[in-house]
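Sanity check

After download, print the first record. It should look like this:
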Amino acid sequence: MLPEDLMLLFLDETDGRVLMDTTSIHNALAGAVLVELVKSGQVAFEEDGKKLSVVDPTPLPNEFLQESLTRLTKPMKPQQAVEKLRHHVRENVMEQLRGRGVLTLEKTKMLGIFPTKSYVINDVEAVSELRDLVGNVVLGNREPDERSGALISLLYAVKALHKVFDGDKRAMNARAEQIAAGDWAGTAVKKSMEAVQAAIIMMMVATTVAATSVASN
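Expected structure tokens:
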């Protein structure tokens, strides 16, 4: 699923190190979950195009997506929906990957005292293939499809492309901007992706403003 692919791109494939800050990862993953729910047909925009709501309450076979669906208890704007889906999203996605055998959880102690955990990537080949696929699109070596287009758009929204891929930051961002505006997805997915991007950017700006305000006081 899109959230799983996105989380794998946020990890260094050699040592499992996380490449982005927690806030950015949570925002991007929550956005990916919302896009998945739209793709499933369970969630859609209302007629005015301003709010999303559950249009099909049929239980989803994936427990993680089903739990996420239950959080959308009423029609809400994309930003509010992303905020609702942020809670424990990284842990839940990691658990999905662990359950599929892609990752292994290792519990250790920091400084020999504080309990901590890390993840080891078991299927390095699959992660490398994913990174090569998306990376080639970012670098302009191939055209985006629905999967790579959505992943790049989400990474671009949280300013993560240069953290995840090697290359010229300005060139990658320019390419991502073109991809985000492209026609690589169906109408419903494209509309939800645009709304999610806008919501994430607004949330990132709000976080930056709040942090600046606290630092100046």
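If your output differs, re-run the checksum step. Summary of this record's structure: The mean pLDDT is 89.
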